[in-house]
Amino acid sequence: MGIGRAAGRSHATTALPLPYLAAALGAFLVAAAILPLLARWLVVTNDDPHVFALAHLVVLGWITMAMMGALHQLFPVALEARIRSPRIGRWNFWLYVIALSGFIPSFFFSWTTGMATFGCLTVLSILIFAANLAASYRSVRLWHPMAFYVAAGLAWLALTVGLGGLYALDWHFGWFQITDAMLAAHVQLGLAGWLSLTLMGVSYKLEAMFSLAHGHGERLALVNLGLWNSGLVGLAASLWLGSGGVLVLVFAIWLGLSAGVFVLDMALLLRRRRRRRFSLSQWHTFVSFASLLAAAALGGMLVGGPSVYRSWVVAYGYIAFFGWFGFSIVGKYYKIVPFLTWLRRFATVAGSAPTPLLREMVDQRIGWASFATLLAGYLGVAAGLLCASAPAVEGAGAFFFIGALLFASNVARLLRPRQSDPAPADGVAAEGFGRVSGPSLRVTQRRFGV
Amino acid sequence: MSEARLQIPDQEIAQQVWEQLMHVYDPEIGVDLVNLGLIYALEVKEGQVRVEMSLTTPGCPMSDTMPEAVERAISMLPGVRSVRADLVWEPRWDPEMMSEQAKRELGFF
Can you give the CATH number for the domain in which A69 is found? Predict the structure, then answer.
């Protein structure tokens, strides 16, 4: 009867992204734990090995790792494509973990040999990922705006890690003087290039899908892609060439306006939604979008203001990384991980045995408690950094860590194997095989009676 | 396949198929496929069932899983000799295709 094709495919779909997502979750917890411990450094300067180590743990260990995992899952399904080599994706995960395990501690302890060695390994691993995904574009059948955003993001990623690798080698060999502006170019290429473009592209696909928003045009998304990339080229070139504050300010405002266009476009998209109630995942996304606007405004102030506290630079990075990317990633875990778990456990029995809804797989009470705690901690840390108050960063950072623990526990219970997984019904029309409610697999028949 | 199964009229099988599919849910949306308006066509000929169905969006993560869930659900019905669920994208699914009950469930009104 043509059934049974899903078994192999579901395993293939889940086997690749899950290790990345699990490792990213671990890095998130470590970063959330370390942040309050580094409060004394964070409120004084961004130019410190401890701060650099934390930043790379957040950007590479948490955010990039999560995006790698998410793209290994989303790219094939959203663009109707195939990952060029899932095998490369699987072993590259271990290369990336090994590289980061050496690179980030080397940063922390200012061990330049380790930074150069493991930095090159990190660059290699990221380039392998980017090349594997770039090669997958040959099989894309659905050219959604996400495809173009991710493609641009990958190009910026290659440039970012190329520069990063060069800096890591330079730190060891001392070829040239790395200026603040050169570091800023590296940061902006990663932040506004790779991370922002990828998250924007994925958001266009997922927010429409999750909210059943149909009929929203793609033109503004594509125009804004051009706007964003041209602004970033200008900003990076101005910083790298040391063209002076005016040009940097112009392009910072340019990017800020483009960020505003993105948020506006998302709002227009969500106005067309047919699922009226916003989900736990979407509330995280709203914090993320608000943080993008806040980071854009703060970025403009940093460039245009006469003088600023060094901690404002850290606050800018914190709002961008923990707010814009972090909240979005946390929210999307509540969609992606249940989906992958559902595929792994229920895809081969769906239609013949009780299966839960995705939202029933997540403990909503823990989810909301985690959201509230993370949000309070996040706002507190951001305020603490803006006021250069170490005690505030320590206290709010500890609160944020509690929220991170709640979130991690919610995700971990999804990943844990269960004894009560359903078996397919055996050739009879079973009552209530459509869905179940809650972890006990209790059948809750719901019929709409059309 | 028993002789008794083969003798079930196609019309009766078709009715059972519709009812059966009202138990197969989109796990993300939480509404069954019939009320979502995702079942475009159903043909039953001498116990051979063919379903044309769609999903809420091209590139839906469930594009592999849902047609197989449909086949699995229908294959359990008495009288069904074979079943095939084909995924189609024309016409493109629109939220207006949902039943009134489904719209109410999702908070349309």
Answer: 1.20.210.10
